[in-house]
Amino acid sequence: MAGMPSENPGQFPYTRGIYPDMYRKRLWTMRQYAGFGSAEESNRRYKFLLEQGNTGLSVAFDLPTQMGMDADHPLAAGEVGRTGVSICSLRDMELLLDGIRLDTVSTSMTINSTASTLLAYYVLVADRQGVPRTRLNGTVQNDILKEYIARGTQIYPPRHSMRIITDLFAWARLETPEWNTISISGYHIREAGSTAAQEIAFTLANAIAYIDAALAAGLKIDDFAPRLSFFFNAHNDFLEEVAKFRAARRLYARIMRERFGSSHCQLRFHTQTAGSTLQARQPEVNVVRTALQAMAAVLGGTQSLHTNSMDEAIGLPTESAATLALRTQQVIAYESGVSAHADPFGGSYVVEALTDTLEAEARAYIDRIDALGGAVAAIEEGFQQNEIHNAAYRYQRAVESGEQVVVGVNRFSSAEKAAIPVFRVDSAIEAQQVERLRELRASRSVAGSAAALAALRAAVGEGGNVMPRIVDAAKALCTTGEIAEALRPQ
Asked: What pLDDT digit, counting tens, does each position of 113-138 carry?
């Protein structure tokens, strides 16, 4: 029954937060997502954001990098550096991180199908900086299941992808023990049109699938459970979003204890404000949307946060828009007073009732997915995809009918167009990146790169852990596309 909460922050099942003091002891990490064009350009943006008070890096990769294609691949034409930074080899990663000591920052890399390769590059840069791998701190998204559900940047069939992911779990446990080996994402599920309950359910069902796969691969639950992390959306319904984070935390804790017998029951998550709610019309209003969404994430107990820039419905963020988005977090942290209280809404009838309702709805979805044979089998049947499509359709109908108000779009609109700066990526970057690839292939050891790729293909076929061979291939200056091709199932 909804009412006063029965537990305190930091107590199982962590409805009120995973730490007793929450932000009174340490604020959330302010991690602004950025990356575009060349590695050098993105490096300059990262240094700028760090100077403005960013407390962590968050790397956006372009679509070819996400899809395991080098910049000179025919299908990469027109996409190189557009939606993120182009990383085709270890050399690019070295440029991306030039002048940034990897033992002084926490880095999140939003990459999935090629996550193992990008982590290999990152680790090798740390090696060259003299930073022990054991001191690396950050997250690689590495969540392939939500690609089949909501995004579509998968390269391999689901079960082969799961094998690569569990190999990364096993390798990182020994090599990079402080690195979060997966960020199980509800963000993209919500961006595709899901409800809040579906976002919780499909995310946690995917988590169950990853845990089951790791256990089947011979790992012990408490060897990898501490490094599981999550990524959620902060959407428009303020109180529902606060409750959503509380419900997700409680449901995860119960799943980990009751289903897997794990003592590691704390759901740690990053939040990003909802890109799908940003509007090209009256873009200044997006500042208000983002501020409310960010406040919901903080009141819900997030561990790190990205706030979207007001211009993202038009183009990549300008420096001024990105700075304002970061300042939004800083005002919440240092001026609003909410960080002085753990779970400020604990005991609120509305929030407690919403928390109970969302947990019950999410658990019912997980039960349906279990009945279908788990998340992978349900994805193969199209269950989650169909549920999201139906929810998105209902929402769009409500917008078109006016039942769902979108300020500046179907109510309170204006014919006047906002005159705000638009950031544009230099079109010359693609040609420059292709030329850099040509030079890399001409200067590397042909025999060394060929041998490394052959060893990787052999590991894929023989069933050994592929991560050491991926690291060897990255060190031999094999490209992202070459490594992705060698990883294909045989």
From this structure: 999 999 999 999 999 999 999 999 99
Residue matched to tokens 């960020």: 183
Instruction: Compute the distance between CA of residue 426 and CA of residue 403 in angstroms, rounded to an integer.
Output: 41
The model's confidence at residue 425, banded by pLDDT at 50, 70 and 90, is confident
* Cross-strand pairs, 273: 234
pLDDT of residue 428 exceeding 70, the answer is: yes
Tracing tokens 């303020």 back to the chain, one arrives at 238
Q: Mind giving me the DSSP string for 128-191?
A: HHT--GGG-EEEE----HHIIIII----S-HHHHHHHHHHHHHHHHHH-TTEE-EEEESHHHHH
Tokens linked to 119: 């982590």
Angle between the N-to-C axes of helices 115-129 and 467-475, in degrees from 0 to 180, rounded to the nearest 10: 60
| Rounded Cα distance, 279 and 475, in Å | 43
User: Which pair of structure tokens corresponds to residue 116?
Assistant: 């193992």
Q: How far apart are CA 319 and CA 379, in angstroms?
A: 39
Classify 269 as helix, strand or coil.
Answer: strand
- The residue whose two tokens read 């596309």 is 481
CB atoms within 10 A of CB 71: 28
Contact 359, 251 (CB under 8 A): yes
The DSSP annotation for 5-68 comes to -SS-TTSTT-TT-SSSSGGGT-PPEEEEEE--BSHHHHHHHHHHHHHTT--EEEEEB-HHHHTT
Rg (CA), the chain: 22
Domains in the chain and their CATH numbers?
A: 22-401 (3.20.20.240), 444-486 (no CATH)
Comparing C-alpha atoms, which of 50, 27, 46, 107 is closest to residue 331?
Answer: 27
Helix, strand, coil percent content, the chain, rounded in steps of 5: 55, 10, 35
Phi, psi of 335 (to 5 degrees): -120, -25
Over residues 152-205, the pLDDT tens digits come to: 999 999 999 999 999 999 999 999 999 999 999 999 999 999 999 999 999 999
**Residue corresponding to tokens 């960080």:** 339
Question: What span, in angstroms and rounded, lies between the C-alpha atoms of 365 and 179?
Answer: 30
Residue 315 burial class via C-beta count within 10 angstroms: exposed 0-12, middle 13-18, buried 19 and up: middle
The 8-class DSSP code of residue 418 comes to P
